[in-house]
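ugh finaly. both done.
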Amino acid sequence: MSTSPNPTATAPTATAPAPTATAPERLDGATVEVIRNYVVSAAEQMRRTLVRSAFNPVIYDVLDFGISIFNADQELMAEASGITHFLGANDRAIVEGTRYIGLENMGPGDVFILNYPYWSGAHAYDAMLFAPVFVDGRDTPAAFLAVRAHWMDLGAKSPGYVLDSTDMHQEGLIFPGTRIVKGGEIVRDITELIRFNSRLPELTLGDFHAQLAALRVGERSLHQIWQKFGIENVEQAIRQVIEHGEAVARKAVAALPDGSWTATDYIDDDNITDDIIEITIRVTIEGDSITADYTGSSPAVPGPVNLPIGSTEGIVKASFKSLTTADEPSNAGHFRPLTIIAEEGSIFNAVYPSATFTQWSAIVAVELMHKALAQVIDAIPASGGGDEPGFMALGHDSRTDADYVVSNNEGIGWGATKDHDGGNAQQHASQTTVRNTPIEILEHKAALLHERLELIQDSAGAGRYRGGVGVLREVRYTEPGEVLSMKKKTKTKPWALAGGHEPEPSEMVIWPGTDRAKRVGMYRASMAAGERFVNRTAGGGGHGDPLDRDPRAVVEDVIDGYVSAESARDTYGVDIHPDGTWTETTDRTDRTTRSHSQE
């Protein structure tokens, strides 16, 4: 059995002295802003350490993680960019983890692991390591650091990703807040438990050590900040930052119209039955407060698409922040105007032992709040592709004589707005700064060969402003393996706005061009050497009537290959001739005539 990296290389440091000083009741704005930026920089340093140290490309290339810094009261001080609902889920996870362990049971240099889904707000493979940070003279932590990242294997019933679990105990090794580093020394019993329960122990433990390294950097950075400014001054500055965050968010909410609006969308199924799952939200704005209420959504289902409440909170926080304080680094104050209601035992508030592994429900649902508020906020865009239609590949590579698991988050078209087209081949809004995996990495790490990767003509929802176009990827297996199609919105279309057209949904076709060809959504299939899959992703929803689109923009779309000449004629009413000139079709001219007569 292979050995893990040096366990002492990334263990966090112990307590360090911090000078005491009497903090004024209020600090001046310049000092507060300087301290705030130091704390945000500490989170960014943690992020860079994780990316540079990780073993797994889903972390160092895809950026599948979330990093947060909390004060002594477990309130968010700063975070580094990462997956949207990871960041929001960390807020609940740190509270649940510290409650379970007890502040009195924590010591300098300790690190804990939490992946119990109903507390951590994610599935079991999104392991969160968190560490208390101590200063001399205090018996309880002065701050907390959290680093969550996707591990490739923790012993679930299926390799790669679990698509058909029916309870938590099929989804991997569970840690409810377990001490994995004690006083700066790694607890070998716990890391050996992980090693012997993982199909990919080197990758898994390598990423564990990368997360430890990030915690160590964060701890050192906090001590430097406290040493420079005095811990009382830093704590006062953070109080003022959180107060300001709340004030700015409430002001933004107060500028929105009061009222209550609903929206409904659909998840394909739960991979146990083929039944479509309804999700619904009622968003109520009253003064400077917003309530997001998921009452009326589906009860929890047998399959693994149920969401822990922390995950639901994460997606709502992301949507809320985009409407209120999108340009400000996050802190706890930004979310104080927000109330979230999800019935216990529903798909949005899963309880033990509900299966929660396939988190694509969160990806589909992240746009639901926007869909409701699009009825009154005209700046909101149409749906961007509906979900994140990626894939995973598993197998054994004879070149390295090693098993592999690789994943890719595929681009979709973003939705159009009232004044511009959607972006082409972008990551879904739920993925934030996440990236796709480069072809070079996929073919180096796995027995795969790409035959095509291209934008899909006519995949965008048409409109006065069209959505962005999606992506087609065709991949051939050079050795036997498995493919996991990862998508949960293939049966219903992404939504459009103001008379725009809805694009066709995403899909994967396995074994294309054969009598076995099969269109699938979330699906696992064995692949022989030479067999292929084609992944097609949805474009974005359109905004406005396509017949109102500027004909010159339609011509440019045809030249660029985003729209076919046939669609230009039949959908946009622009007939483009071989010499590049164009004329309006009768559909467009008749509509213009009707509009003028109504005026």
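ok and the 2nd:
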Amino acid sequence: MKPTSNSYLKKALIICLYGLIGLLILLTIIGLWGLKPLLTKRIQHAVLTATNNLYYLDFQNIQYDFTTGEAKLSGVTCQADSTLYSQLRSNKQMPDNIYQAQIKEIHLKGIKPWKIVFSSKLNLESISIKEPIIQITHQKQVYNSFKTAAPFHVILSKFVKSFSVDKVSLDNINFTYTDHSKPEIPRTSKVEHLDIELSDLQIDSASHKDTNRFYYMKECIFKLEKLEILTEDSLNKFKIRELLFSTKSRLLSIKHLEFDPLFKPIVYGNKTHGDDRIKIVCQDIKLEAIDLFKLFEEKKIYANNLFINQGKINVFTDTRIFRIPPRAKYRPFPHEAFRKWQLKFMIDTITLSLFKITYSEYNPETRLVGNVIFAQTNGKVFNFTNDSIPLQKNPNCLVLLKGKLMNKANVNMTFNFNVAAPKGDFTCSGKLLNMAVANVNQVTEALVMAKAKEGFITYFAFEMKGNKFGLTGSTTMLYKDLNVMIYKFPPKKGIFKKRKLLSFIANTFVIKESNPIRKKPARIAKINYRRLPNKPFFYTLWKGLLEGIKGSVI
């Protein structure tokens, strides 16, 4: 999934919101002139004139009560003229976005005609828009990049000097955004059950300079109950159960975010020719101190703190050899990938709490899956950015993690990613204390057809540095009483048959029982792993560690 979809979505929501507000202003003013039989034609004519004859407005009914200052429009529809749309395309005048809307009801309160007549000011108590269905089709036109849109208060000045409303609410919005940037593969994003509430909206020649306001308002609250976006390759779906964002507090809160593969592991491997299958679930997310100017003007996400509580990350690697090679000859490391995202971001500190991270590897020869689990993982990420300006000051993204390997032994890990490095440079180190070797038997049985009968690790530490070409480093593993059992390869019908003679030879002549041995110094194993360019980061890291572990015991 590309992050540019979210950027377009935010921009489209703002454009749509203010388009509706502008329409309501126009309807309110015109609604004070003439009688009801004439209103429909007048409003439709006004909309056509204001949109250069591109949009046609229709509605089933309009009501206006002069005594209470309330107006209602029901069954409102707005759509573009397809004939004119084609002409604009031919004349290179077509806008980037085309809108289509259906609104169940628009309710305005607090209309004061005398104030409009004598002071040219329109002040309302509230505007309520119920169940709007909005469709936006986006196709970027190069010639529009050189145009500058007039400020909203300048457009409004053609009708009234100022406009204000205490509260604007849009309830239960269903929003569809179709991006035709790549005409052969249009991408559609849908937002359902979105609520937007604006407080103290003031549009005039001075309010746009008020630093306490955001786009002419004191506060805008977005509340979303459901969001689902299909990734470009149609293999995964991005989901959000609930989202709440306030421009006043500059806080974004998300409940249950999920990146969900649509196919089971083996089927996913068949469709991608061996790409990693990644599933992410986060129960509670809070992004604090968001820079609103960066977000809405520069389309960048800048924030001080991101808190992610209770999450799961499952990475499944399929090691089968496919007749068709992987789609990418080179698999970028994570920091190489997000450096190239079009959406730029800068988050000072990310705090992770109670995560479960699982790395799974499928062995086609045994037809088994080995699972390396890091449970109860907490951590910090510092200087998480892919924007060129902060990267010039500090190109390093530091990651500190603490958890329990196989839910048994405490482990600490540190990663330092040089995001600006052209070769994807990074360093990593880790330390583990006190764990029975048998705790990893599920992994060794699946991947190497062996398990530990006895053995206890008192200390394990590693240091590695790597880049796109491979890993170098060392491991120190202190252990005692190691004894292994080797099984016949491959297993038959899931039954492991022991190879007792081979196990005896391995334990006697190949595998060292302990480290250190008697009074000899502890052995330090070297790592020099050449990376397979089409294999991902976790696979590379795991193979490098295995090389160090083998060097410690053999």
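summary for the 2nd one i guess: DSSP finds twelve helices and 21 strands in the chain.
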